[in-house]
Amino acid sequence: MDQVNSAIASNLAIVAGILALVCLLVVVLVVTVVVQARRIGRLKTRLDGVTRGVDGRSLESVLDSHLETVFRVARQQDALSARATDLETAAGRHLDRVGLVRFNPFEDTGGNQSFALALLDDALDGFVMSSLHSRTGTRIYAKAITGGAADATLSAEEAQALAMARRQSASRAVAAASDGPGGRSRAGTARPAATQVSSTSRPLEPVDRSDEPVDADFLDRRLRGQDVGN
Q1: What is the pLDDT of residue 93?
Q2: Regarding predicted confidence, which is higher, 143 or 59?
Q3: I need a labelling partner for 36 at 20 to 30 A (CA). Which of 21, 47, 94, 179 fits?
Q4: What is the pLDDT of residue 123?
């Protein structure tokens, strides 16, 4: 026992030093834990402020809400795309290509009150309508157009009106091909061709019928482009 006490007494300074070092390490660890706890608290507060909305929802709830919004927008975009496709298909059937020729087929009338009107859609389907006006009456005729071709013989004025409408289709195709990004032409904004109106058609042989009424057979032959004698 005396030997043990003697050993402790001789090494007391070393033991005291070790105990002091341990106490210092404990103090350092306590300070470190306190500092880290404060940092974690501040980070948690900032994270809560970033991830929580005004209603105080959790990050999971916020993400679920954003995902639902994304899916809803995607569904709406699909619906708008389908609707735009339907509108484009319907727009292709609109009769927006127009050719109009006014003329005077008889010497006893004036003012170019007779006309030939061609109306076509994107597929060059439509019709040509003609009106022949005389002192005794007005007759109206219509001829179907399919793919830019008529189902019956056209008069000179009807053919001219149809050519006007077809040229509008060709000019629009050229303008669409020259469009740059955003649907604008390299030379400026492309505009659809204006409706061409001619006040007179190619010269007709004079027909002197001022002394007799114009009958229906004569109008039919005139509209079909057949030669009309005196």
Answers
A1: 81
A2: 143
A3: 21
A4: 87
Per-residue pLDDT tens for 60-110? Answer: 777 888 889 999 999 999 999 999 999 888 887 888 899 999 988 877 666
- DSSP conformation letters of 23-51: HHHHHHHHHHHHHHHHHHHHHHHHHHHHH
Nearest to 175 by CA among 186, 196, 188, 190: 190
- What is the rounded CA–CA span in Å between residue 227 and residue 53? 86
**Dist. CA 221–CA 219, nearest whole Å:** 5
Yes or no: say if 105 and 96 are a contact pair by the CB < 8 Å rule.
no
Q: Where are the domains of the chain?
A: 1-51, 53-91, 97-223
Distance CA 187, CA 58 (A): 55
DSSP string, 100-167: EEEE---TT--S--EEEEEEE-TTS-EEEEEEEEETTEEEEEEEEEETTEESSPPPHHHHHHHHHHHH
What is the model's pTM?
Answer: 0.46
Rounded CA separation 37/226 (Å):
104
Beta carbons of 147 and 123 less than 8 angstroms apart: yes
**DSSP H or E run through 89:** helix 59-91
Local confidence band at 57 (pLDDT 50, 70, 90 cut-offs)? low
State how far the Cα of 184 lies from the Cα of 188, in Å rounded to an integer: 6
